[in-house]
From TrEMBL:
Name of the protein in its database record: Pseudouridine synthase
Pfam annotation, one family: S4
GO cellular component: cytosol
Family: Belongs to the pseudouridine synthase RsuA family.
Purpose of the protein: Responsible for synthesis of pseudouridine from uracil-2605 in 23S ribosomal RNA.
Superkingdom per UniProt: Bacteria
EC number(s) from the headed UniProt entry: 5.4.99.-
Keywords assigned: Isomerase, RNA-binding, rRNA processing
Region annotated Disordered, chain positions: 249-290
Start and end residues of each RNA-binding S4 domain: 3-65
Biased composition regions of type Basic residues, renumbered to the chain: 257-290
């Protein structure tokens, strides 16, 4: 039985389907020694190389779909490598052999909060597709005068440079004067959409935190820079949203489950150690530039 190359590679954790299609178009993937074509089908015995390196392809039954929740801090980039050496969201994720983490969407460098990663590129691709309309919730601090007429415009819809946009809901969440917090929801993930919606009303977003993706909230107490593995129930909730079959196995071993307090304590220590290492690296980098 043959399957499409991009589907097999996405399932095997070598990127989202969109990323793999871009690599095929750029001639970076070879199958059995020949440059791959978009839409090409392969069987289980095919030899596949990406950028000259042979990669493992896995049958569907051999792959466990894993999903991580990551609490992204401000200042981290949603890219695998930064030419300037700045920290990225991939730096702290657990290392794997024969697969890699695929981000479900992205958050800009100045936005913090919930970011999902999965080993299943097909799941990531479907979750990111605009047709899915999965609701995201953000906590946002606004600098500027906000009145009811402005909120009504943002609920009804405004015209941005890439088309109309609106918030599904807007709820006041504290603050006073010209510094107020709101919780907003929307069902798409266009670039900087939350910030651009508020900026269209001539106010400024001073803090932006994603606190929910679909029915999955940012876990209470999860430190910034920390990650936690989603349960099988949560993984299958995501798979159901995009019409993928349920996963039967979990990477989490219930026999070795730690308490949340102990697990998050370890994350805080590791995060503090990482921050200290980055501080030590900065003076060295500045010296090398002189």
């Amino acid at each position: 039985m043959t399957e499409k190359l991009q589907k097999v590679l996405a399932r095997s954790g070598h990127g989202s389907r969109r990323e793999i299609e871009a690599k095929i178009s750029a001639g970076r993937i070879r199958v059995n020694g020949k440059v791959a074509r978009l839409g090409e089908r392969i069987d289980a015995d095919a030899q596949v190389r990406i950028d000259g390196h042979e990669v493992q392809i896995k049958p569907e039954e051999a792959v466990i779909c894993r999903v991580l929740m990551y609490h992204k801090p401000e200042g981290e980039l949603c890219t695998r490598k930064d030419p300037e050496g700045r920290p990225t969201v991939y730096d702290r994720l657990p290392k794997m052999s024969g697969a890699r983490w695929v981000a479900v969407g992205r958050l800009d460098v100045n936005t913090s909060g919930l970011l999902l990663f999965t080993t299943d590129g097909e799941l990531a691709n479907r979750l990111m597709h605009p047709s899915q309309q999965i609701e995201r919730e953000y906590a946002v601090r606004i600098f500027g005068e906000v009145d009811e007429a402005m909120l009504q415009r943002l609920r009804k819809g405004v015209q941005l440079e890439d088309g109309p946009a609106k918030f599904n809901t807007i709820k006041a969440a504290g603050g006073e004067g010209i510094n107020r917090w709101f919780h907003v929801t929307l069902s798409e993930g266009r670039n900087r959409e939350v910030r651009r919606l508020w900026e269209s009303q001539e106010v400024q977003v001073s803090r932006l935190i994603r606190v929910r993706y679909g029915d999955i909230p940012l876990e209470s107490g999860l430190p910034q820079g920390g990650w936690t593995e989603l349960s099988l129930e949560e993984v299958n909730y995501l798979r159901k949203q995009v019409k993928l079959p349920a996963e039967q196995r979990s990477f989490i071993d219930p026999r070795h489950k730690e308490s949340k307090q102990r697990r998050f304590g370890k994350i805080r220590k590791a995060t503090a150690k990482r921050k200290q290492q980055l501080k030590q690296q900065k003076p060295r980098a500045n010296k090398s530039k002189k």
